[in-house]
């Protein structure tokens, strides 16, 4: 972790996007294209299940007042350190079990944007979590969600399951279809705006190499994969059309309906 924080100190918060496999950068690029510009007045954003805070810090860098929630105290400590190293004062972090988000009445109707990236596949009551997330939005607020695509091809054996019937931190389901996500957001009172995908063929192959090499040593994996990280940006869009290879994550944008 000290080495990773050194990278943040040397290269800024964007180093957090390339600590691990390429899927993190893929998701950030997807989010970045869809985050509204805060403009002159600060907009508020909540990152639910924020991990070590990469997207929370990135949103703060764009001008948001950003709150990251995670149940993991260690992750939140790391996120706080990285925000400090990045010179970000508008990113804050709190320890919160997102399954109990409905108990946080102080967050209700408070945010312009909510991020829910790769979270709902970890919880059994996914409909409740999406509904609780929607309740954190102001009228007209935007939800940005990513989760595994039910049609993905496994990157490594771990993607084959097993998918557990208890919540241990691992996936409780393989993923979601577009129809499944439509039902989730409709049940939460949200208006679906877009369904799309991210993490294509090249990114999946680079990520597979990273995971295998990480079994030898994390730094061997990081150094070996570093020169390959721009390949998905350059080629995945083209190969999507040529190969028809399913992308690993399905993504959506949905909006809380403003009262009439």
Largest sheet: 7 strands, mixed
Percent strand: 15-25%
Q: Please tell me what the overall shape is.
A: globular
Rg over alpha carbons: 18 Å
Cα separation of the termini = 50 Å
Overall SS class? alpha/beta
What does this structure look like?
With 260 residues, this protein is α/β, with parallel strands linked by helices. It has one domain: Vaccinia Virus protein VP39 (Rossmann fold). Helix content is 38%, strand content 21%. It is built from 9 helices and 7 strands; from the N terminus they run ααβαβαββαβαβαααβ. A 7-stranded mixed sheet has the order 3-2-1-4-5-7-6, with helices on both faces. α5 links the parallel β4 and β5. α7 packs antiparallel against α8 and α7 crosses α9. It is globular and about 50 Å long. The relative contact order is 0.15.
